[in-house]
């Protein structure tokens, strides 16, 4: 007991800050039922994106039925697409509170109701509400939870699994464009709406497949095989004493107990010496490596009966398990090092974090949006946060952020309206308006806004433009199918890229947007069926890179800790752009009687969105450098008073529980 008291008086060192054993958290299976989740997510994307991107097939029919301009009819599809994106924060809050399965089932029912009501529409405004708002809301409820659940089931194979799931978007466009044309020819647009309602209800069956991960179960078999810790320590020490009683070890005078004056090692030193002994022998004339020193063995040629071929027993670290060795080494006599105050603060903060993580509520940790990387669709090896952790368990704990439910949360207006704490926390994460003051985020947001202004223009008007050039409606619908085919190829290519950390995803995104934008600007010059097919192939590949790499670029530029925050605001920017993009292009058609100006503007803003992201790495480095200088100034002021170190550390650890 006295020896332990002496250790507690030693200065704080890096070795004194132990990493406590972390409690088990649910680990993504990276297979098993996860592949069923991938299939269900794939089918949900087939239905949702297939219907959304095929709305252009309805354009001529609705214009004729209601005798309205194409720009006004385009509002129906634009409201549908915009709502599908804007409801993202709401859907995230519901999924974090109730789980992804009930949210997907609810979305299927809402979308089906919207399409059934659309079949009985009497005017365009009626379709704004039924097809646009109800259909878009239902699809938003399906899309986001379907992608999030894949990320919850996969970690090492996340990029591959997510790539398969999102390929449903391209396959859906490939299938639904000609199928919708065929259904309209056979049953009319009202009958087609009823059939689309029935197809949407299939997502209920797919939703039931989204089985939530449960908390980890203890493995009693592994516990029964392993002896208790104290028993293993006792057996290891008995083996050590048996060898010591038969051997005589002489070492340098500065390591000898000077009080006794004989070649015996003190008890407090023995564990440290043996714990660091390697390549040792019992024969005379050999060398012992003790506590980092080469010490000659000065015993006579005596071979211990307990040693094989005159060698000492295995090192202490091999006799016991790693956890015992770590325990003994941490409690052995060491020469303390004096780190800086900054190092002490970091070490103490790490220890406080381990203690905090050991108290994490396992049920809370299963909420998807408490994982900071849940929206990251690429290989985790791209994340510095993943590479900096010693193992996967520590990484799991490092990315979990469970907000503290304080009095302010309980008294907020959202709580009074019946929102759960988990729902309020998700809203706060995804609507973090402080990001609007960061130049890096503003560039990303404006770039995404410009991209989405031109994104839906080809989907909305390419079929009608082909018809104006004498191309039959069936062939015009197949042009959209080509976009779906190359969109699938582009998403697979993006998944392959994401598995290679050396590849610059931002460069690929910028190049794809510029190429897709330039081709869209040149679209008015393409008046033959074969040239329009070529344009569709290039455009489909380009937008696939944008859609697949967006979350990866956001995480690499802003950090994975800001991914969820940025994703919510980016959905708002892109949703607003989707609202106005296609109607704006339709307005230019109504004015000029041609789609030339519409495609000129759409292609220009898409290309501009890629060009403006070129200086993004330089802006990010400048912003990070400015933040580091600010933090360094605050740190120097803080460490000028040693008492502020512990206080600051305590405050930091209290911000995230």
UniProtKB/TrEMBL annotation:
Keywords: Membrane, Transmembrane, Transmembrane helix. The lineage of its organism: Eukaryota, Metazoa, Ecdysozoa, Arthropoda, Chelicerata. It is a multi-pass membrane protein. The chain crosses the membrane at residues 32-53, 73-91, 103-122, 128-153, 160-179, 191-213, 435-457, 477-494, 506-526, 532-553, 565-585, 597-619. InterPro entries: MFS (IPR011701), MFS_dom (IPR020846), MFS_trans_sf (IPR036259), Proton-linked_MCT (IPR050327). This is Monocarboxylate transporter 12-like isoform X2. Coiled coil: none annotated. It is found in: Membrane. The gene is LOC106467309. Residues 33-621 form the Major facilitator superfamily (MFS) profile domain. SUPFAM superfamilies: MFS general substrate transporter. Residues 1-21, 633-657 are annotated as: Disordered. The keyword Transmembrane helix applies. It comes from the Eukaryota. The keyword Membrane applies.
């Amino acid at each position: 007991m006295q020896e332990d008291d002496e250790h507690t008086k030693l200065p704080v060192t890096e070795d004194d800050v132990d990493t406590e054993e972390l409690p088990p958290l649910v680990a993504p299976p990276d297979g098993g039922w996860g592949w069923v989740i991938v299939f269900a997510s794939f089918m949900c994307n087939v239905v949702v994106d297939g219907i959304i991107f095929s709305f252009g097939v309805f354009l001529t029919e609705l214009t004729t039925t209601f005798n309205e301009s194409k720009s006004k009819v385009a509002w129906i599809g634009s409201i549908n697409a915009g709502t599908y994106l804007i409801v993202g924060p709401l859907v995230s809050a519901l999924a974090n509170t109730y789980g992804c399965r009930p949210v997907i089932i609810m979305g299927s029912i809402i979308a089906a109701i919207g399409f059934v009501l659309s079949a009985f529409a009497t005017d365009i405004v009626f379709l704004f509400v039924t097809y646009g708002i109800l259909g878009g809301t239902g699809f938003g409820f399906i899309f986001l939870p379907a992608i999030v659940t894949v990320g919850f089931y996969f970690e090492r194979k996340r990029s591959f699994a997510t790539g398969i799931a999102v390929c449903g978007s391209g396959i859906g466009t490939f299938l639904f464009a000609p199928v919708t044309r065929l259904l309209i020819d056979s049953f009319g647009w009202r009958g087609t709406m009823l059939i689309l309602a029935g197809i949407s209800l299939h997502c209920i069956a797919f939703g039931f497949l989204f089985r939530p991960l449960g908390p980890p179960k203890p493995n009693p078999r592994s516990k029964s095989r392993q002896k208790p810790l104290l028993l293993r320590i006792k057996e290891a020490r008995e083996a050590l004493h048996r060898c010591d009683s038969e051997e005589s070890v002489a070492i340098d005078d500065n390591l000898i107990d000077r009080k006794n004056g004989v070649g015996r090692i003190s008890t407090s030193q023995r564990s440290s010496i043996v714990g660091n002994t390697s390549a040792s022998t019992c024969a005379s004339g050999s060398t012992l490596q003790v506590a980092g020193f080469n010490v000659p063995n000065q015993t006579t040629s005596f071979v211990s009966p307990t040693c094989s071929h005159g060698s000492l027993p295995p090192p202490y670290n091999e006799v016991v398990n790693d956890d015992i060795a770590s325990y003994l080494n941490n409690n052995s006599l060491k020469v303390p090092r004096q780190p800086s105050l900054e190092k002490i603060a970091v070490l103490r903060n790490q220890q406080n974090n381990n203690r905090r993580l050991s108290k994490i509520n396992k049920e809370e940790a299963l909420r998807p949006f408490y994982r900071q990387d849940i929206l990251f669709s690429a290989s985790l090896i791209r994340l510095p946060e993943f590479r900096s952790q010693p193992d996967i368990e520590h990484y799991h704990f490092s990315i979990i952020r469970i907000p503290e439910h304080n009095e302010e949360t309980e008294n907020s207006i959202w709580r009074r309206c019946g929102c759960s704490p988990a729902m309020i926390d998700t809203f706060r994460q995804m609507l973090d308006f402080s990001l609007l003051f960061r130049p890096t985020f503003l560039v990303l947001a404006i770039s995404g806004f410009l991209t989405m202004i031109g994104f839906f223009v080809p989907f909305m008007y390419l079929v009608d433009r082909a018809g104006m050039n004498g191309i039959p409606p069936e062939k015009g619908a197949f042009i959209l199918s080509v976009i779906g085919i190359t969109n699938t190829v582009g998403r697979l290519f993006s998944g392959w890229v994401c598995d290679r950390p050396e590849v610059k995803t931002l460069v690929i995104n910028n190049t794809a947007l510029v190429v897709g934008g330039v081709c869209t600007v040149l679209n008015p010059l393409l008046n033959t069926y074969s040239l329009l097919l070529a344009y569709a192939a290039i455009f489909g590949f380009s937008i696939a890179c944008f859609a697949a790499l967006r979350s990866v670029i956001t995480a690499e530029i802003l950090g994975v800790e800001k991914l969820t925050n940025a994703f919510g605001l980016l959905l708002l920017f892109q949703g607003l752009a989707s609202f106005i993009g296609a109607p704006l292009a339709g307005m230019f058609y109504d004015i000029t009687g041609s789609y030339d100006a519409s495609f000129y503007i759409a292609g220009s803003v898409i290309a501009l969105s890629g060009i403006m992201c070129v200086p993004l790495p330089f802006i990010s480095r400048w912003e990070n450098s400015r933040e580091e200088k600010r933090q360094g100034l605050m740190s120097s002021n803080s460490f000028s008073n040693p008492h502020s170190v512990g206080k600051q550390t305590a405050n930091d650890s209290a911000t995230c529980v």
